[in-house]
């Protein structure tokens, strides 16, 4: 947000006063440090924090005509039009109090929010029709809650108005409803109030008014008068206020309870960074939340935006009514979550802005807009499709996200959030969506006589959060302090380098004069040319070599990893016709790196999906499926060893060949090609050159979506077998494909996986000198199938992400690198490991690339934990990549036109290298590794005091 816009925003909020104080929300969050503010917060909630779960009567109770209950507007509404299902039975909670109580107790919540069915207590809506059996149902429920030490949070009205009141009076459209609702509330306070400390008068009056009496989407389904919703909202506000005053005067002195109204809202972000867009966002919230919140929490008036745009369509309060309505809430009861798409139905109330799921910003806005009230989140959660049973990963991770946002709101933003209610306890009738979605923490089998309830994974998760009172920081979440060994390899990787086949030095044959009298510039003499130099080109003639080596030097690394271009070096596939000019350039480049004390690490073939990078003849002949390709690759490797081996001591044969788009047959030939190239070096070049050879595998981490579920551990192992073990096990392990991989494919009756014959087994096994991985991100997998995520049928796994992760566009999950490194250690013992590429995408225009700074710091810190705490034989780390020109969006260097820009991440990475990790300021030095000379030890420890940043 620009400084000019910030000033305008300040002026606007100052002029408008308190009712528009929430307008500062967008500016405030745009200035918070990124991505640090987006990182997950490990902390706990206040000790007295309310953990709750909730339901609504019509959704779960059933027994719609039993024991004297009268009809509600939903009983009638679900029998009209083209609706297919009813809530006649719902989850049958009326007959299953014991099952609901058991579920509530299992969750460990402190409070249970439920609503009273008005027509179960007063069948025709008035006190004269009182139904004692229905009343006793709620007495019994409250008593049983007390027995398990759970406090009731009781909603008087959750959308199920007695049908009689709708038919005889027109429902909430009639002002007479104010007194009728007050009388109903009076009875409830008398009957249940001694055991209830939290009351909600009306749930989501916006939906009642706009969609019950405007769009007709919900009961009573009226849509005849576009102005009727505003009159209904007016009556709802007055009804709530009347009930609040009743409680405040007659019941609070002895019952000591608190009372509010549940208001629900979406969140919205500006489509443009202009003050007009922010005003539209504010107006959108005013039309939904402010419609009811401003009269109650501020001054008994509707928001100015509503009055300006609706004019006479919006009713007005008299002075007496304003005083009656204002300040009639003891806390702010806020609903948020999956209802947002139901809230607005269409774009008309978005006013051209973008709807978003952001509970934290909404909490901050409410706090600012309504004078810092205590906020009780009385409904929050997500939903899953109706065919989902007990595994609900999407629900669980959205629940985690919303709880985490509430925690940040308390700890970071200073908002007084007093409680959180997960919605809902059990599956039930989901209003206009009927049974098409499920929102319960407990799965209800609607086909069983007793409506069997089973805890979902979201229930297990919520119980764990409640037990820990949030997300306490564990040792593995804390940053590590310490250093890597003195001989640790610090590098930077690039997929390729800039190649210059014609030396730029001495290529200009023009003659120049030095303009001594003026500015010292060279002046070209037209018509004169110097005779050509009769000498062979030198490495110093290549300006690109000097430039690239200087850029690498500035990072402070001691190794540089890049790939050769096989198809350009050996265009025909025959090494007898190699491109000697290109070979000379590569030779110069590697030699200059060594002279700059930078060790070259060279990949012979870099796999890319876009192009094969194979020589033309091989590219046209089945590529890797051609049995001649491995032989041709081995010949190409010998050429490179012979011509460049004097300068290159660390070789990668194949970089990331384990792509899921590669067939098993292609992979088999790639393994043979790698092995042939390794043996060629081992036999013919290692004795004289003394280098090392291996391959680099792509290894993003795969984590079980439900870490507490054994059923997800196996799918995670399976994916790692198929993605990494596929290439790793034949080389580093048994000499064959992973047993789990073979058995799974056998179970599928698949013959796709080749069989190693005896020769290939001996050829491939043990062909390594180190284990190199490229690691960028982490995915979650589960065996549960949910249509909204990517399902891999072959492996029978669902891929998903944790919605609390930072995205760019792949998830930023630093601890995934530590787990990947430990997987290598556990599988292949003390094998030397290199992280050959690790980096993150970020907008190339962001030269203060704060995400990349955050990424490198935290991923390297996790690598340090793997080395110091877990005993991984980690030898080196390579940041990816050198520059945006060769590797767009990943570079430590940016570029504007011809100017090279040093990004902030480069300086930060150089600082980590300079300190060889993260030593503690003023801390004692670690023991010097054996075998180091005093000079080497002094060099290792120079600058070893790390300043905390």
UniProtKB/TrEMBL annotation:
The keyword Ion transport does not apply. GO terms for cellular component: plasma membrane. It is found in: Cell membrane. Keywords: Cell membrane, Glycoprotein, Membrane, Repeat, Signal, Transmembrane, Transmembrane helix. Belongs to the glycosyl hydrolase 1 family. Klotho subfamily. This is Klotho. GO terms for molecular function: fibroblast growth factor binding; fibroblast growth factor receptor binding; hydrolase activity, hydrolyzing O-glycosyl compounds. Residues 1-17 form the signal peptide. It is a single-pass membrane protein. GO terms for biological process: carbohydrate metabolic process; fibroblast growth factor receptor signaling pathway. InterPro entries: GH, GH_1_N_CS, Glyco_hydro_1. PROSITE patterns: GLYCOSYL_HYDROL_F1_2. It comes from Takifugu rubripes (Japanese pufferfish).
